[in-house]
User: Fold these one by one.
Assistant:
Number 1:
Amino acid sequence: MYKVLIVSDTHGRNNNFYLTLQQEKDIDLIVHCGDVEATEDVLQSIAECPIKFVSGNNDFFSNLPRDLEFELGKYKVWVTHGHQYLVSMGYQNIKEEAIDRGADIVMFGHSHKPLAIEEDGLFLFNPGSLSYPRQEGRHPSYITLYLYDDGHISYKINYLEEY
Ligand SMILES: [Mn+2]
């Protein structure tokens, strides 16, 4: 089994990322969907596995890539922050672009509201924000994604209860 932690929109406030790693063990890969605010070295120093980053709309002067594509088992993953696809208004634009790119999974952030759905053969994952959640209840959120040996995946939106 391969475990992926998806986080986003930490905005330089990294305590909840630390708390997340306290409660999630055996992570193989972390994906950060942007708005890192120049603390990628701090985040990487806390983690014991590689972190893939993309830049967000608040990552001024950042050298992080705007988009990333990689393979996760049989799945093609596309990661982007999401502001260029107006994800705060809905996920139709980013869904269409993901399908055009031939992606099986799109990971994004920006809205600070978690989402994990499968539609028309595409998985859409937005972990929400660990620092400034905006969904009802406003608990910091992240997604855990598991790739099993038989090739299928499962996923879950998780919330920090104490932070
Ligand atoms: Mn943000």
Number 2:
Amino acid sequence: MKELSCKVKHNAKIANGIYAMTVTLPEEVHTACGQFLNISTGNPAHLLKRPFGIMRSSGTNVTFCYQLKGEGTRLLSQAKPGDGLHVTLPLGNGFQIPESAKKIAVIGGGVGVFPLLSVVEGVKGREYYTYLGFRSAEYSCLVGEFAAASKRLSVVTDDGSLGKKSNAVSAFIEEYASVLPDLIVSCGPPVMLRALKERLKERGITTPCLVSLEERMGCGIGACLVCVCKKSDGSNARVCKDGPVFDINEVEL
Ligand SMILES: Cc1cc2nc3c(=O)[nH]c(=O)nc-3n(C[C@H](O)[C@H](O)[C@H](O)COP(=O)(O)OP(=O)(O)OC[C@H]3O[C@@H](n4cnc5c(N)ncnc54)[C@H](O)[C@@H]3O)c2cc1C
Ligand code: FES
């Protein structure tokens, strides 16, 4: 993990309220798929860094996408190429994709799709069956990128304005029998991950399933315990340090 000053290379809107930013680091930092970074503009109103999934990493360039939420993301959206930012990376455990997983189902909802791109583009030699769910067409993004890296891609929206009117979990469950994946990886809002856990249990599907959780964070490095989540055995885990990726049966959703 490194704390570095970086420079904005590119920062542009890619969908309604959603931006993609590439920053250039002063040195190359190795990152694994599903890890995240913590970043701030250094503005006094934004001293605490904000966590975002690392989407791509190439040489000294690192790309992430962010949805406008509050003050921190508003300030990030105003950053121009050449501006200096403060970043800590890589953070978290990331997705550990076993060599034996050849067919992988990828289920993403909303901003949860961003870190999943690091899996489909980064872990080569696998077949990806990807299910993406967005609120509506205007919030959809990265569809071309996922299509290029997936054997099959299904995009659905809550209102049917792009693809079928459905959600990513239902789209996956409908195709499960024809895909029979070796592994499921997922990231999305808590309600989506809860639905995924319930539907897998209901159908008796025991395929290993890794989920990336989102919790409010403070330090991002395991010290403040703001991000604690409950594990199924009653113990606690820090999402920033022990996660953000967990086996779906390991955590309470
Ligand atoms: C591991 C991880 C990966 C994430 N990856 C992405 C991503 O790739 N793209 C994306 O758009 N969003 C992602 N998020 C959510 C993102 O961190 C929040 O939307 C962002 O911090 C909001 O900051 P803000 O200042 O604009 O909002 P405010 O609501 O003003 O934030 C106030 C405080 O709450 C914290 N906070 C608010 N919402 C969240 C949240 N959902 N998760 C964690 N902290 C939060 C902020 O860090 C800040 O300290 C991720 C969160 C986590 C934990
Ligand atoms: S955010 Fe501080 S321990 Fe996780």
